[in-house]
Amino acid sequence: MSKLTDVPKRILIGRALRSDKLGETLLPKRIALPVFASDPLSSVAYAPGEVLLVLSVAGVSAYTFSPWIAVAVVVLMFTVVASYRQNVHAYPSGGGDYEVATTNLGPRAGLTVASALLVDYVLTVAVSISSGIENLGSAIPFVVEHKTLCAVAVIVLLTLMNLRGVRESGKLFAIPTYVFVAGVFIMIAWGAIRGLVMGDTMKAPTADLTIHAEQGGLAGFALVFLLLRAFSSGCAALTGVEAISNGVPAFRKPKSKNAATTLALMGGLAVTMFCGIIALAMATNVHMAESPAKDLLRNGTPVGAGFTQDPVISQVAAAVFGSGSFLFVVLAAATALVLFLAANTAYNGFPLLGSILAQDRYLPRQLHTRGDRLAFSNGIVLLAGAAAVLTYIYGADSTRLIQLYIVGVFVSFTLSQIGMVRHWNRHLLTEKDPAKRRRMQSSRAINAFGATFTGLVLAVVLLTKFTHGAWVALLGMVIFFVTMTAIRRHYDRVSDEIAADDTPDDDVVRPSRVHSLVLVSKVHKPTLRALNYAKLMRSDTLEAVSVDVDQADTRALREEWERRGIEVPLKVLASPYREITRPIIDHVKSLRRQSPRDAVSVYIPEYVVGHWYEHLLHNQSALRLKGRLLFTPGVMVTSVPWQLDSSEAAKKRARKRAEWNAPGAVRRGPVAAQPKKDKTTQKDRAAQKDKQEKTPATER
């Protein structure tokens, strides 16, 4: 059966890679750029439009503020990029914002950042895929009619591509990303030549339309609020910047230097593209409205519901290249495709962050395990499932989904940069070198400026978008926070409960006629109980067996084994593909081949839990292993239970159910014993009495 399921798995995902091949999956800068920066690079396709849409509330005259808003976004982009360049040097482990906040602000702040990033990664997939489907649907009606189904199908496709490994998915995503970037730069350059050198007049498709201002003549606080709202909308161009700091471990060596270089390159490209599109939109008189059917006017009359408002980048491309031209079609296709691929930023950031959280015991340990292709497969599948559910609930409507966006990323930006300020304050207390102190003070000023900026954006986003859907993102953050806190509390309690005492129990090996194996992962109470129980079974030979899936853990196990002086020999099985079940099965079979008449007894320590959800966190490897061992001839499997405290609650519930289900205990109560009715007749009793009288006394 396993072979039958293995064939399609290998076709879809590819052959398994050995652990020592991990270095071959690391990314060079040219591949890391499209893998980790596709989200911020693609956001220039809609961020300029978001700025103009907000400003259109006050009419075309408010468009004059768009260059200044672009300057503010550029300043913020450079500030954030500069801050994250310091992050990747100071914290290269891949923890990114989570590690910065945890180290400098405490575990609660770190968990808040992690919750915000996890929500933002899920939304990145949902928004990017939905937006791409809507762009594709303008050319293919079938996609519009079934956009939810098509969006989920694209999520499945991206999931399979990422399960094959980040290097292979990066190669697939590199071409369209670079085509999009090249197309935008060619458009900016050709537009500048036509406008400044050749003196041509370029007009966007909406240049001849006017805008009906919903709130014309804004001034004072109302105008300031509108500009802040437009600025916060334009900051959508910054989404995904943090992914590189979370993905440092995926870079080739020198990791920090390559990640910092990629950050700078990404920031330069995104800023140039964003400003170029804003400038060309102003030069070609692009007009946008939040409700185009009634707010866009042609000769004083609304254009009506039949009018399709194209994105800013499409209108600019039509003005520069000509609508329907070859370069226009290429750029339009690359834009739609890169929006799909923007979700790949989340497919790399979410699993890496999930792995770190799992290592810190905030998420199930399965998220820390690499799959066959050395990618964090469980995290990829979890992200895909959450994004697919969200896409289905919102009907793949990017307009509704984008209201949930941005909140999480600016929570992480703000807390991360506050954490970096504390980081520099702590180092300045001990640093005496004047040159290093000057560099630290400059870095602190950059981080403080970034924290102020991003905090302002976060406040504006919450104020303007809360009732439009931002509350859903906040609710998701709360759910993640509470769930991860509960998981950490559970793991801590279990760890304290099963911690081995300094004085081990009796280690004398007792004789037996079977070869016994005790499976060992760590030296704790369940392991010691399994060892002592195996000794009592009078084994002919007894050995402890562990599987080497992590060299650091295996080394720690050997040292603890030797420190305690445990007399049972410890055998470590190699596992180049990080499997647990197969090496043990192969070892058991080899023992059976050496002595076919002997039996092999395998002792497996297991936890006994009292709640259904705890089963998801424990005993998964034991269940898979028992399922295989039970079908191996000549092998006896023994579960050595260790009852966790929560299992006592299960026992009490079982006793209550048994008492309540006692037959008749509730309905009738206790039934008193009734005397049997005498069915003998009077004639029979007289005959019996006469017989007794005739019987001799000695016989009676």
UniProtKB/TrEMBL annotation:
It comes from the Bacteria. The keyword Transmembrane helix applies. Residues 675-700 have a biased composition (Basic and acidic residues). GO terms for cellular component: membrane. It is found in: Membrane. InterPro entries: AA/rel_permease1, APC_K+_Transporter. It comes from Streptomyces piniterrae. Its main location: membrane. Pfam families: AA_permease_2. Keywords: Membrane, Transmembrane, Transmembrane helix. It is a multi-pass membrane protein. Residues 651-700 are annotated as: Disordered. This is APC family permease. The keyword Magnesium does not apply. The chain crosses the membrane at residues 65-84, 111-133, 139-160, 172-193, 218-241, 262-283, 326-353, 374-395, 401-424, 445-463, 469-487. GO terms for molecular function: transmembrane transporter activity.
